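>> received
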Amino acid sequence: HGGSGDVQVTVFTPSNEQLKPSTRLTPDGLRVDWTPAEVGTYMVHVSFAGSAVPGSPFRVKCYDPKKVIV
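>> returned
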């Protein structure tokens, strides 16, 4: 198994700004953290040892919590 140093994660905002999120390995897998600054779909690109992992880039939709009705 490779260490977390073999994993590269880049997040692109809905306006295509590039972010470098914090990452850490957990017993469940890789945890990726960032605080969204805008509503929309973020693209999370994950590579391991220089190759994209299956399913990457991942789409993450972020919403305005003030507009969510439960």
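>> The CA atoms of residues 22 and 33 lie 5 Å apart.
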